[in-house]
Amino acid sequence: MTRPITVGVDGSPESQAAVDWAAGEAVRRGLPLRVVHAWHWEPLSTPVPNSGDEQAKWARELVRETEQRLAASHRDLSIVAEVLDAEPVPALVRANEEARMLVLGSRGHGALLGFLLGSHAQQVLARASRPVVSVRAPEDAKEGSADAPAQTTAAREAADGEVVVGQQGSAEDSDAVLRFAFEAAAARGVPVRAVRAWSLPPIYAYTPGSMRLADEAGGLEPYEKEQLAEALAPWREKFPEVPVAEHVEIGSGGQVLLSQTARAQLLVVGRRVRRSPIGSRIGSVAHAALHHARCPVAVVPHD
């Protein structure tokens, strides 16, 4: 079964930007598109007459109008649009499990908004088993600084650019993240920029074995460069047509990664799949990217 690209829609500018991005990505990858709106009516203590019927009608019209708009502009794209009768978070988590990726709208610069509000979006990201892509609304893309003007999502997709990916840990740790980045770059015909941040370890952080490897590599920074090159090697071989730039820098992972996104069409970051006593988390690097990157951000879960 071919997994579709699934996008959540709620009628907001953020979700419409997500729909447009998802449709373009489905065309590039030759995949079907699934448009969903998650809605479940629960009677209130002081119900408004026929409010459930009106909301259900609005939801059906929303997905139908979205499907019609996409069909008019993407005639060869296979599209399915449906209303999911369930609470948003569990409905989208299930939709993510059935998809190649789930695409949601975001305003960035604060709590994730758009298709889901407040902590709901973070719950979906933290519980998703497959990639989730967060897409900015065009209005937000206008908030650039004078020396680095922002572009809309459409403008970024049309312009020359690159796919930026954060690489952490060992080659095995980053396989899923690098796979997503190279596939996205190959579909677009653009380079990959692979970024690895590192910091000076506490005196007890490195084992004697790892320090020996660092010494053999000529020091900590050359060791980090060697680790990045090792992680990239199989993907360079699998995607020889994709140019690759490597960037290794000492500093905070989120800050180093964001500093390399000036020409990014897409930023790809990883999220380790793990549970904590206070629930699922998305990690500091993914958190920084989702809140501050001006391009779409793909969060890829990995072991």
UniProtKB/TrEMBL annotation:
Annotated Low complexity bias: 146-156
Entries under InterPro entries matching the protein: Rossmann-like_a/b/a_fold, Universal_stress_UspA, UspA
All copies of domain UspA, residue ranges: 1-136, 163-301
Chain segments carrying region Disordered: 136-162
Lineage: superkingdom: Bacteria
Protein family according to the UniProt entry: Belongs to the universal stress protein A family.
Protein known as: Universal stress protein
Organism for this UniProt entry: Streptomyces buecherae
Lineage, highest ranks first: Bacteria, Bacillati, Actinomycetota, Actinomycetes, Kitasatosporales
